[in-house]
Amino acid sequence: MTEPSGIIREDSPSLEEAAGDSPTSAPKAGKRPGPRREWRIAFFALLAAGLVAAAGWVVFLSPLLVVRSVVVTGIRLVPKSEILAAADVDPGTPLIRVNTAAAAARIALIRQVRSAQVTRSWPDRVVIVVRERVPALNLTAPGGGYDLMDSDGVVVRWSARRAAGLPLYLTTVPVAALRGNPELAAAAAVVGRSEERRVGKECRSR
Length: 206
Known about the structure:
Strand 5 and strand 6 form a beta hairpin. The N and C termini lie far apart (111 Å). The protein is built from 5 helices and 6 strands. The N terminus and C terminus are likely disordered. Helix 3 crosses helix 4.
């Protein structure tokens, strides 16, 4: 800017700067990353993809994480071979591919099994925990002997003799129709409470 005396002040912007043509006035927001930064981004992206692919190979295809053993606990009545057959877990199967819920459901179909839990134990083992049914009542079997039945009305096993410590349950209902019978469940519950009291007294007397 020129004052009336014709002197140009040093702090006055030039015509080019006033018009926005100064080299320092260019916006910085549109500045693109340099080649080195782009190379680093590409490198780390490829590295991450490689790590994901390697992890997937180890988990799904590598022989390092396959089933080498199946451990079964909680069984007394059911043979281990029957549990393993129902679980249908083949050695060498990638551990991640073992359908634990389906295996537990198949095991639970065994008559003497009340429930089952199947879990993976890394790196190479499957663990099966079985909860067997417990006899609560004696029932006279149609062909002789006694059916030992649990509180759900399921025949756990047959015995030639009446099981000691279990009451005889008298009913005219066929054995096949007793599953889920509320009267039988109530009778088994009474037996269970009596057994708990008996065990408690024995523990206190020791």
